[in-house]
Design brief:
The structure is a single chain. By secondary structure, the chain is mainly β. The chain has three helices and 13 strands, in the order βαββαββββαββββββ. Strands 1-3-2-6-5-4 form a six-stranded mixed barrel. A four-stranded mixed sheet has the order 10-7-9-12, with no helix packed on it. A three-stranded antiparallel sheet has the order 8-13-11, with no helix packed on it. β4 (about 60-70) and β5 form a beta hairpin. The mean pLDDT is about 90.
Length: about 190
């Protein structure tokens, strides 16, 4: 899984007025929370944070969030729970970060990428993809960015189920193994 480093500063103010003031000064308000951590209000440099979000580009990522305060800094391993954006200008308005443990298994949605041309399609069948993502359970750094599926061996009326997906070591399927990912329908055998 992708890892990104981001720095943030603790902030005192909260509410709409404080958030607007931060945004005017080029900062993005954020909140850090987790199972063993009281919620903390943060501020991030908007330009740097936006660049980091573009590097992630809708993929699962562990963020190494360095939070600085007057006494020093602490690094937390987090995932984004929510990123609020302005619907017209597409600026980042607010971010929620959730602290995770790199040693505990978590559940993630992982995209499926299909490659090749199925044999059944060449025989007149039609390739039908039923799933774009699959749910996996494992330690955050063991989860792949995506799962690539070669559909070339699929013949007419053949299918590939979730249980047949190539998963890395330490990662397990967190949904029904009988679910169909892709199938070739119709055509002549």
């Amino acid at each position: 899984m992708l890892q990104v480093d981001i720095t943030a500063q603790k902030r005192d103010g909260s509410g709409k007025g404080a958030a607007r003031s931060l945004r005017r000064s080029g900062q993005t308000p954020a909140v850090l929370y987790g199972p063993k951590l009281a919620p903390q209000t943060l501020s991030l440099d908007t330009h740097t944070f936006t660049k980091a979000l573009f590097s992630v580009h809708r993929r699962n990522a562990v963020i190494n969030l360095e939070v600085a305060d007057g006494a020093g800094s602490t690094v937390h391993h987090v995932v984004t729970r929510e990123i609020q954006t302005d619907p017209i200008l597409d600026n980042v308005l607010h971010a929620d970060f959730y602290v995770i443990s790199l040693d505990q298994p978590l559940i993630f949605q992982v995209p499926l990428r299909y490659k090749g041309k199925a044999k059944g399609v060449e025989m007149g069948g039609e390739l039908e993809t039923s799933m774009e993502k699959v749910t996996l359970k494992g330690k955050a750094l063991d989860i792949p960015d995506f799962i690539e599926i070669d559909v070339t061996p699929l013949g007419v009326n053949a299918k590939l189920t979730c249980g047949e997906l190539p998963l890395p070591a330490g990662v397990e399927l967190a949904e029904k193994a009988e679910g169909v990912c892709v199938a070739v329908i119709g055509g002549s055998e």
